[in-house]
Specification:
Low-confidence stretches of chain A: none
GO molecular function (chains A, B): metal ion binding; peptidase activity
Mean pLDDT of chain A: 94
Largest sheet of chain A: 6 strands, mixed
Number of helices of chain A: 13
Oligomer: homodimer
Protein name (chains A, B): Peptidase dimerization domain protein
GO biological process, one term (chains A, B): proteolysis
CATH superfamily of the largest domain in chain A: Zn peptidases
Domain Peptidase M20 dimerisation (chains A, B): 199-357
Structural class of chain A: alpha+beta
CATH class of the largest domain in chain A: Alpha Beta
CATH architecture of the largest domain in chain A: 3-Layer(aba) Sandwich
Organism (chains A, B): Aureicoccus marinus
Strand order of the largest sheet of chain A: 1-2-6-3-7-17
Chain lengths: 462, 462
C-alpha cells in the first residue's frame, strides 16, 4: 500500500495528461455557441468519476446544463463528504491577449511556478481544482484509503450564476444529503502561505440599456441638441460612486456587516505588499472606498464595477453618429447580510430614478448570490487546517476573499450543511483573464492534501 | 430641344436605375475590408461621367482612395463651375436595424416621400446627390444647354475626413481652377420649404484609450480595490460637460463666433416645431447647452458627443471581469473661428490632465476640419437662390446646419473660391443611420434645379 506522495510520484504524468484533455474542451457556459462543448465536458467528467472509482455516476438533467453526480458509499454509518465543483469556464476573450490558445493547454514555467504551470482557460477555475478531488478519490479507492462516504456534484453553470442549481438541490435533497461540503474553487495567499477561505462576497449582476433617439443620428445635424445615450450612461455610471468612493445607491449599505476593530486588526496581519500589488498589475495607484485598506476593499466591503460597456460605432476608423442605445453590464459584490435580490431592486429603482427625462432606461438582472462566512471552529475547518498543516508544513491563515460562489449560501439553506473552501490556486493565476494558469505544484499539492482532510474529518466526526 | 422637365419625364426611370446600380456597391471608406468596393465605385463614377458627356475623365490616385475628375470645357472665356461630391459612404451598422439590406436598394413610399424614396446606404449621402449633377450635365450636353465650363471632383474619403484631399488640391490647383464650387451634400428644411446651407460646423474627432490593470481581472477578487478603466472613462467623459451643458475643456470657447441678437432673431424665423422634433425622435426631452435654442445648439454652438464606447465583456450573458482597457470615440463640432487642430490639442491636454494617477490614457486624433460660413450676397448664392425659386416656386431660406464638410474651408484656402451648398435631402432621410433614403421627388427636383443654377450664374457672371 503506497502513501499519497508515492502514488502521486508514480502517476503525476497521467494526472496532468488527463487534466489537459479536459481543458481542451471549450465549455463556455455564457455563450450558447459552445453548448455542445459544455455537454461534451459533462460526459468527460462522468467518465473520469467512473474511472476514479465511484460506484454510481449520473448526468442529471436540469433546466440548463446538467449536473454530474457521482458517489461511493462505503458505510451509511460513516460521515459523507459532498465535493462540489464546476466544469464550465469563463469566456476567453479578449483572445488577442492570450500568449497561447485558451483551449490548447501548454505547460510553462513562471517565477511563481518554477515547476511549471498549465496555461488554459479553466486550468484553475475550476477544472484543475475539482479534478484534484477526482484524482484524490482514485488514490483513496485503489489504495483502500477512503475512510468515509463521498459524493460529487460537478455543475456546468457556475460562471453564469448557477441558475438551475436551486431547483436541483431542492429536488434531490436525499441524494445530496451530507455532513460537510468540500469545495476547491478558491486560492491560497502563496505557496508558502497556505490559507483557507472563510468568507465570500455575494453578487448582484445587472445589465442596463439607455435609449435616446429612436434611431442612430448624424452627430453633425443632431449633436448637442438631443440626448446622447452614451454621454447619459457615462454620467449615470459616474454618479454611482461619490468622491469618497462610496456607492450612492440609497440603502445600499444598510445591512452591511460591520467588523470590530479587533477583527480588522486580525485580518490586517495577513501578509500583503501594496507596492508589489501595484507593480504586479502595473497600476499607478490603487482606487477604492475611503477609510478602508486595499485588502478590506476586496474582502469585507461591498463594491460596484462596470464589467462591460458598449454603444455607438466601435469599429475601425471614425463614424460621426449619435447612437440610439448604450449598454453596460454592472456587477455589485456584496458582503454578509446584504440580500442580493434586495440590492438588485435598490439598484434598479435608483438607476431608473437618476435617468433624465430625455432617455428611457431598462435594467435587466442577470444573476446573483448571497455572501457567506464560515466559522473557523467547526470540525470541517479544523480537519482542513490540519490537512494543510501536514502537507504545507505550516498552519493555514483564515482569509476572507472578494470572490463569490453563490451556491455556498444556498447549500446552507437547502442542504443545511457547512461548506469548507479549501482551494489551491493563486490570485496571480489570472482566472477570468487571458493566460489563466494553474501551478503543477499546486495541482499535486491539492491531490496530496485532500486525503488528509478525509482522514482528519472522519477521525474527529461523531 | 426639350426642356429639363420634359427630359426628366422622358428619362427618369433610367436615372433611378443608374443610381440604384451605383448604390449596390458597398463603398465603405472607414473599413479596409471594403477597399476593393471603394475602388470599384470610383470606376463606376468614371464611366458615369464619360457617358454624361465629359470630354476628359480621370481616376486620380492619392495616398488614400482616388479622386474621380471630369471636365467639359466649352470656352475658356466662360466661367467654370467645380462640382464636388463623394462616392464613399458611412458604415451601415447597426445592421439589425435596417428594414432592408443597406446595399440592396429598394423604393418605398413614406409620409414625407409620397412619390417613393430609395432606401440604401449612400442614397442621400452622397451618391444620390452628386449623381443629380451627373444627370443634369447629361441633359445640358445632349440638349446643348451647357452655358459654361464644368469640372467634377468626386472623392472617396469624405466619410473618413478627406485625409488625402489637401495634398490633391495643392498638387492640382491648375486642373481644379474654377470660379465657383457647387456641392449637394446638405439638405432643405422641407420639400415645401427650400433652403440653402450658409454655415457648416467644423469637426475634431479623437479616440481615447484608458488603461487600468495590465490584464483583465476577476471582479470578485479585485473589484473595488483597483482602477476600473470603464468606471474611470465614464467619470472622465461625464466631466466633459458641466451642469449647464457647457463643455469644460479650458479654452474651448475662446474663439467661438458670437452672433448678434439680430442674427439670432433672424435665424429663429426658420420654421421649427420642437414638439414635432421630439416626437420624430421619440425622445422625452431635448438636451443641450443652457441659454440656446435647439436650432442654435446644432448650428451656431460647438458641441461634444461620444460617438462610440466599448470595454470589458460585451458578449452574451455575464462575465465578472474588470477590463484592462476601455475606449471611446469622441467628436467635437466646431463653429467658425475655432481651429480644429487647436481644439484637438486642447482636448488632448485636458483629457490627460483629468486622468487619475491610477490609470494611463492615450488620445489619438482621427481627423477634423474647419467650420465655414458663406455670404448670402455673392453671385453664386444669388444664382442658387434664383434657381430654387424657379423650381420650388418660393425663395429658399438661408440656413446654418450642424454638419461638417471639412473641405469647404480647404477649398477657400487652397483654391480661393467660394462654395455654394445647394443640397436636396431632408434631415429625416436618416443619413449615417439605418434605413438611409433619398426621395425620388428630391432626386428629380435636384436634377431640375441644377441647370437653372448654371444658367443664372453664367448670365450674371462678369
Amino acid at each position: 500500500m503506497s502513501t499519497i506522495q508515492s502514488y502521486i510520484d508514480q502517476h503525476k504524468e497521467r494526472f496532468i495528461a488527463e487534466l489537459i484533455d479536459l481543458l481542451k474542451i471549450p465549455s463556455i457556459s455564457a455563450d450558447t455557441a459552445f453548448s455542445e462543448d459544455v455537454i461534451q465536458t459533462a460526459e468527460a467528467v462522468k467518465i473520469a468519476l467512473d474511472q476514479a472509482g465511484c460506484d454510481r455516476v449520473e448526468i442529471c438533467e436540469t433546466k440548463g446544463y446538467p449536473v454530474v453526480y457521482g458517489e461511493k458509499i462505503i458505510d451509511p454509518k460513516l460521515p459523507t463528504v459532498l465535493v462540489y465543483g464546476h466544469y464550465d469556464v469563463q469566456p476567453p476573450d479578449p483572445m488577442d491577449l492570450w500568449d497561447s490558445p485558451p483551449f490548447e493547454p501548454v505547460i510553462k514555467k513562471t517565477d511563481l511556478h518554477p515547476d511549471g504551470a498549465i496555461f488554459a482557460r479553466g486550468a484553475c477555475d475550476d477544472k484543475g481544482q475539482f479534478f484534484m478531488h477526482v484524482k484524490a478519490l482514485e488514490y483513496m479507492v485503489r489504495e483502500n484509503e477512503l475512510p468515509c462516504n463521498i459524493k460529487f456534484m460537478i455543475e456546468g453553470e457556475e460562471e453564469v450564476g448557477s441558475d438551475s442549481l436551486a431547483d436541483f438541490l431542492n429536488e434531490n435533497k436525499e441524494l445530496l444529503s451530507n455532513d460537510i461540503i468540500l469545495i476547491s474553487d478558491t486560492g491560497i495567499i502563496a505557496n508558502d502561505v497556505p490559507s483557507i477561505t472563510t468568507g465570500l462576497r455575494g453578487l448582484s449582476y445587472v445589465e442596463v440599456e439607455v435609449t435616446g433617439p429612436n434611431r442612430d443620428l448624424h452627430s453633425g445635424i443632431y449633436g448637442g441638441a438631443v440626448p446622447n445615450p452614451i454621454n447619459v450612461l457615462a454620467k449615470m455610471v459616474a454618479s454611482l460612486h461619490d468622491e469618497n468612493g462610496h456607492i450612492t445607491i440609497p440603502g445600499f449599505y444598510d445591512k452591511v456587516e460591520v467588523l470590530s476593530a479587533e477583527e480588522r486588526a486580525e485580518m490586517a496581519k495577513a501578509p500583503f505588499d501594496l507596492e508589489e500589488y501595484k507593480k504586479a498589475l502595473d497600476i499607478g495607484d490603487v482606487e477604492g472606498e475611503n477609510g478602508y485598506s486595499t485588502t478590506e476593499r476586496f474582502s469585507i466591503r461591498p463594491t460596484l464595477d462596470v464589467n462591460g460597456i458598449w454603444g455607438g460605432y466601435t469599429g475601425e476608423g471614425a463614424k460621426t453618429v449619435i447612437a440610439s442605445k448604450a449598454y453596460a453590464k454592472i456587477s455589485m459584490r456584496l458582503v454578509p447580510h446584504q440580500d442580493w435580490n434586495e440590492i438588485t431592486d435598490l439598484f434598479t429603482k435608483h438607476f431608473e430614478a437618476i435617468a433624465p427625462d430625455s432617455v428611457k432606461v431598462k435594467v435587466t438582472p442577470h444573476h446573483g448570490g448571497q455572501g457567506y462566512v464560515t466559522p473557523i471552529d467547526s470540525p470541517g475547518y479544523r480537519a482542513a487546517a490540519a490537512a494543510m498543516e501536514t502537507t504545507f508544513g505550516k498552519k493555514p491563515v483564515p482569509q476572507r476573499t472578494g470572490g463569490s460562489i453563490p451556491i455556498v449560501a444556498l447549500f446552507e439553506e437547502v442542504l443545511e450543511s457547512k461548506t469548507i473552501l479549501m482551494g489551491f490556486g493563486l490570485d496571480s493565476d489570472a482566472i477570468h483573464s487571458p493566460n489563466e494558469h494553474f501551478g503543477i505544484w499546486n495541482f499535486l499539492k491539492g491531490i496530496e492534501t485532500i486525503p488528509h482532510f478525509f482522514k482528519n474529518y472522519t477521525a474527529h466526526w461523531s
